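ok so for the tutorial part 2 we go from a plain amino acid sequence to predicted structure tokens. step 1 is just haveing the sequence, like this:
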Amino acid sequence: MQGMQMFFEQLHNVFEFVCVYYSTILGFCAIISIFVMGIIMALRSSVFAGHVFGRAALWCMLIPVLFCGKLRAYFETRVGVHTIFRWYSFLSEHRWICAVYMAGIIAFAALLIYRRVRLKRLIRFMTDSEDHLSVYPVKVYSGKASSFCLGCFKPVIVVPDSLQGAERGVVIKHEETHIRLGHLWILLAYDILRTLLWPNVLLHIGVRYLKRDLEDICDLVTIQRNNIDTGFYGRVILDCAKDMSDSGRKIGYESGISFTTDDNYKALRKRLEQIVRERAYDPKAVLSWAVILVMVVCAALGSLALLPSP
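step 2 — the prediction. this is what the tokens look like for a chain of 310 residues:
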């Protein structure tokens, strides 16, 4: 009996240490992410306002944030050591804050998982599309709703039965582009980031703007790859937005999966204007810049990973 009591006491002590330690590290990451989000939002609305791929690339600045909890400045400078020691001592004295932080991570993760599981169960009862074939399974939703795609490993496209003919074909091509560009994986990574750093409200607000930037890239790539008339493409987007507004059904958006955000008229108008004035891009140039971006991010992660642990 005494041995069991000692075991649970030791287990409790280990759990408290883990909570305090990770709350300390993730707390610093959450603080840093506030400044990074501020930089992203400022640049995307100013310097990169007219650059579709540039705005999307800005979000890569969030990748190294999770590794910033062990920056050299924290442990090898007098100010850094003093700051992190005071922060760690404060959390050790108020362990309920750590418990709330960890509970928030668990609750937020459970909510996101529940939404995805619920949506997958809903899709099981949808019929397969027979008139529009795709390399991915296409499900038809009975009624008016926002089209969306989901599933990182086994992607599925969902379209409403209100779309027919060429309009449905364009929407399917649009969702295929989301899948092929890895947007589902990007959205999953962002959900993980904002789950771990959930106290930063800007990360939750930023989901809308991240999806807008991914939508802009998807529009541009879909039009050029499939040689679609921009006028017709814009009318399809407008009709889809109108149907979604009239019906009020946003099953993909409500589950956090759909890239069709619940935007206002001003945002929709801006998107349509951008579609109409889109110009052809050079795929080789975009690929080259993407490779450079990956190298920069890997270099940043590598420099952080090589820093000595405390």
